[in-house]
């Protein structure tokens, strides 16, 4: 092999493939300065990582979310307050408010929609082909406050575990940190682990209880080449909705408690049994009405007020679409929540006037089974909440009519569709929407609509028949549950889908602030790649040149190799520091919800595959035309990154942690 370059030319070799112009050099300096300011700002935030000592060695455990008195006994667990105080957390952002940005119906001239209020498109969708638009209720139309609602769920689940399942009284001292967990995680029931997985099903972060798994532990359990895990089936549970935050957090607490010296009462239970008991306790909380009664008593304490929701529903109905509600909640709770959301009513002030915003209401759907052939469809008497049998959707009249209310039977004839009103037609001006109860005009300037029908159970075929749609592609459905609302609706019946991801509010705000950090990370990767290539050249030359190991040439090139290796290590360390700090800024434990290092997370991958549209809140639709032609983004492959450098972040990362 030819003689290696002298040391004097090493710098030019190392920077040959990296940006080397004066402008790129200045950009690098600017990025570095901004990144240092980012890291300094991060250090001032109270986002300390969990630190848990080994009780086996110290007989002391820093236990997350439990308070107990100090004790000198070696057999007693010393539990102290959690050393972490996260920022506002994911999923806590309230819906958009009037005045944030002009609504689409309020301006004749277009204006740019601010990023936090945007709806993002994965798959092209022409709204003119959509005949019916549906919504889930919980965490879709109704955005719950996790700091209160999930805390209540955690408290009541603990109570069920103690009183109904015989768990020790110590569980009553468990506290809940609502912003510790986030969506998209995977629970390993057998091992008692909480995992964050990337789009290639590679576990990037893992915790056993509140003890972080090492890289070697993750590799042995999940990331070995001979394993092919899809993290589905009975051995795993997915944190697919914000309803699961309290459940996931409590599972981590139970695992930690079981492994501790004071958790002897749980030593005989497997981690899988812990989760099974926990899941049963959560179901009890929903079945016995304890959660619902608290929400009904004070909806404002548990649900964000959304002042633009009525405007969105009115606009969509005025465009000629049929609007439906399809929720797993049953009628009594649905009536409570929708009264608060659309009428601002609670208690004795509740009515069924909110039904005027919908053509069809389906409660107790039982999704995702709803998207397959399912059980009997019942009509709901909205006055009493009683159910009536139906035959193929047609009501069955009881023998003794005196035993039922005199409420009119629902009309199950397919709804007729009127065309979207023309902007120039009389009575159809944009500002007239505020005076509408929904529905098309009857020609006299007054809204005309059919009495809404309320049903329980059934399946999508019943809904299609009532709406008068002939294929799933004519339906757009908005939901928050990636599997129960989006994946199944897309896979099973071909509905077009809109995923509501309230975490985007936090994600987008931090993303805007971190643009310079991403630029420096890209530059550091390019420099490291160049140095790595030069290091391998030195190694190859030393191994294949035939030089005498005692010669001066061999010694010089060995010294250059060591210098290059040191620079490579420094670049790798710097890169890891900046990337880790960036992720901790999003969440001090789990990092960015849609990323794992540079890779998209499993959750983000599912969004890309199954959600035609996604946004932070349903009310963001108020900023767009109901007849909009949504266009998907341009797909960029790795070889196209040269022409589209701004899109070049979907590249493999050799960093195992962040």
From TrEMBL:
<feature type="binding site">
    <location>
        <position position="138"/>
    </location>
    <ligand>
        <name>GMP</name>
    </ligand>
</feature>
<dbReference type="InterPro" id="IPR036412">
    <property type="entry name" value="HAD-like_sf"/>
</dbReference>
<feature type="binding site">
    <location>
        <position position="136"/>
    </location>
    <ligand>
        <name>Mg(2+)</name>
    </ligand>
</feature>
<dbReference type="Pfam" id="PF05761">
    <property type="entry name" value="5_nucleotid"/>
</dbReference>
<feature type="active site" description="Nucleophile">
    <location>
        <position position="136"/>
    </location>
</feature>
<dbReference type="InterPro" id="IPR016695">
    <property type="entry name" value="Pur_nucleotidase"/>
</dbReference>
<feature type="active site" description="Proton donor">
    <location>
        <position position="138"/>
    </location>
</feature>
<dbReference type="GO" id="GO:0046872">
    <property type="term" value="F:metal ion binding"/>
</dbReference>
<dbReference type="InterPro" id="IPR023214">
    <property type="entry name" value="HAD_sf"/>
</dbReference>
<keyword id="KW-0378">Hydrolase</keyword>
<feature type="region of interest" description="Disordered">
    <location>
        <begin position="413"/>
        <end position="451"/>
    </location>
</feature>
<feature type="compositionally biased region" description="Low complexity">
    <location>
        <begin position="415"/>
        <end position="439"/>
    </location>
</feature>
<protein>
    <recommendedName>
        <fullName>5'-nucleotidase</fullName>
    </recommendedName>
</protein>
<feature type="binding site">
    <location>
        <position position="480"/>
    </location>
    <ligand>
        <name>Mg(2+)</name>
    </ligand>
</feature>
<comment type="similarity">
    <text>Belongs to the 5'(3')-deoxyribonucleotidase family.</text>
</comment>
<dbReference type="GO" id="GO:0008253">
    <property type="term" value="F:5'-nucleotidase activity"/>
</dbReference>
<keyword id="KW-0479">Metal-binding</keyword>
<dbReference type="InterPro" id="IPR008380">
    <property type="entry name" value="HAD-SF_hydro_IG_5-nucl"/>
</dbReference>
<keyword id="KW-0460">Magnesium</keyword>
